[in-house]
TrEMBL record:
InterPro entries: Phage_phiJL001_Gp84 (IPR011928), Phage_phiJL001_Gp84_C (IPR018964). Residues 271-291 are annotated as: Disordered. NCBIfam families: phg_TIGR02218. Pfam families: Phage_BR0599, Phage_phiJL001_Gp84_N. This is Phage protein. Residues 281-291 have a biased composition (Basic and acidic residues). The lineage of its organism: Bacteria, Pseudomonadati, Pseudomonadota, Alphaproteobacteria, Rhodobacterales. Transmembrane segments: none annotated.
Amino acid sequence: MTGLLEHLGTGVTTTCRAWALTRRDGVVMGFTDHDRLLAFEGIAFRPDTGLSALALQQTTGLSVDNTEALGALNDAAIREADIEAGRYDGAELRAWLVNWQDVAARRLLFRGSIGELRRAGGAFEAELRGLTDALNVPLGRVYQKACSAVLGDRDCRFDLDTPGYVSERPAEEVEENRVFRFAEMGGFAEDWFRHGVLRVLSGAAAGLIGLIKRDRTEGTGRVIELWHPLGAKVMPGNALRIEAGCDKRRGTCQFKFDNLMNFQGFPDIPGDDWTITDPSKAPRLDGGSRR
């Protein structure tokens, strides 16, 4: 930082901007608006990606910093198929001002994540959200009859790798990237995977997940149907992991998962009808004697 301030103080500068993008699947990509490759922090920042950023808005206090990044879709950098697959959703992004003659002289200007991402005409536009954006997330428990935990998380504590709750198998027939048909899936009752998760472990869609809408038998076969199509093509033979589903009810937690001790709902909480019921159904409601 000191080196950069001294450089800026000379009045004749050799600065550029650099961005590092880290996807949730661990892929790290570097970009710069300089005309040659830069490298620092173990990242190579490429000049041929066409990525640029609009003016960065930064404020003091807890208001949200924001900016936008623009760029051209490039098979060697950011591909349209990866955007469609959601691989950049929630990706972390850092932006520096760098002296390209001495990359040790740099300053981190922005750190945040990608919000809304739009693409059109061979280009993309990404909204960047600062770290304070996380303060917009509601915190605290919700008092409701259904369980508020996600199956297998730290509140639920159920081990999904328990035998009988996961099926790992290759894809067989795939329709519209949403309906998966299997010739046989013995050992699992019908509807066992409804409300569960289908994870793709290999192929072009590796790392993508889909929420299961229906799980039904069809003759001697089995059909798993997702709520929405996956963002990348799933081919027969690609490895899948299909996890049992939970409908958040106490009976399901008790009898399907034997996990009632970790149930995070309030099944005995009174409903709205009870809370607004009149204290008496007698004609007189003035608090006096009913004689």
